[in-house]
Design brief:
The complex is a heterodimer of chains A (136) and B (76). Chain A has one domain: BH3618-like. Helices cover 15% and strands 35% of the residues of chain A. In chain A, strand 5 and strand 6 form a beta hairpin. Chain A has 136 residues and is α+β, with helices and mostly antiparallel strands. In chain A, strands 1, 2, 3, 4, 5, 6, 7 and 8 form an 8-stranded antiparallel β-sheet that branches. Chain B has 2 helices and 3 strands; from the N terminus they run E-E-E-H-H. The radius of gyration of chain B is 22 Å and the shape is elongated. The interface between A and B is medium-sized, with 37 and 27 residues.
Chain lengths: 136, 76
Amino acid sequence: MVAQTISFPKGLIGFKENKMFDLIWDQKRAPFHLLKAKDGALSFIILPINEFAPEYQLVPTKEEELLLSVEESDELVYFAIVTIPQDPSLMSANLQGPVLINLSKKMGFQAIRPDEELRYPILEGYTRLMQECQQC
Amino acid sequence: MLVLTRKSGQGIMIGDEIRISIVSIEGDRVRLGIDAPRDVSVHREEIFLQIIEENQKARLEGDIDWEKLKNIFSGA
């Protein structure tokens, strides 16, 4: 298990009081990651967006780069928060509020992309990705 | 809440850097112009509200069956 503490200066949208989270990766949960608040019982499942929607091109805005102190050599990862309904096969990813993490600076931010899907069907995207890979 | 009456073409200042102006009024639709520094993000309120709602839905409650979740994902 690998855990690193990520600071979210603005918190997550609607959860402004939680500024520090552990980003937890564990083989037994791969490719899912856990984002767990240091100071409360708040946690989310997150998934690197390129694991299921590589066509989704995300570029940080200037403001986001400033907020996350992005420098050229920094490692940036876009995650989506995963919502798991009663039927887990209908799990969806929030691409409208992607979570951008600057791994090099250990800083994160929930961005807003108004034109993207709020509930992107993860399994459909993943299936399509696998089919495309078999062809290539 | 502060309530102000403005006519088309007029504006309000929030602090000394954010200006909101009334561009036009047609029936029940008001077009607003917003001038704000680049580090201030401006979005429609409903986008915010639906992301808050989705975050609340996504918040984990109780234990997760990771094995099951992984199987669903890799078996897709």
